[in-house]
């Protein structure tokens, strides 16, 4: 890598997104590009990598929250169909016998909490996608074809 492509890191720890930087610089060197990478550019690349990792985590969390919501909805529907007064209800790893009305209340509360959590996760994902779009604009404007921020 030509000297103009090297960045001396003042940070002792390298991040997984540093791979993105090295790959970017190797591509830049291969294409003959002579774009100087500043410390700020490196920070933007690292931030993009961290946000990308968080998006993947959020997608998993959103999927889990949706599944939990569906399970609670199914449980609520089953509870409507039952004609038993006392229901076995799992709390943690223990089953307890509770009145039907109390189980209905608990399931409704759990559905509310899960729905609110799902909404927060979706909002966070949208916010992160907006940040990533801004970083893409900045990085593609400077590095053009020398950088690849798209997933393969």
From TrEMBL:
The reply on keyword Chloroplast is: no
Bilayer-crossing residues are none
**What keywords were assigned to this record?**
Chaperone, Coiled coil
Q: InterPro entries attached here?
A: PFD_beta-like (IPR002777), PFDN4 (IPR016661)
This protein's record includes keyword Chaperone? yes
Q: Which Pfam families match?
A: Prefoldin_2 (PF01920)
| Coiled-coil segments on the chain, per record | 48-85, 111-138
Q: What PANTHER family does UniProt report for this protein, alphabetically?
A: PREFOLDIN SUBUNIT 4
Per the similarity annotation, which family is this? Belongs to the prefoldin subunit beta family.
This one is known as: Prefoldin subunit 4
Q: Please give the organism.
A: Penstemon davidsonii
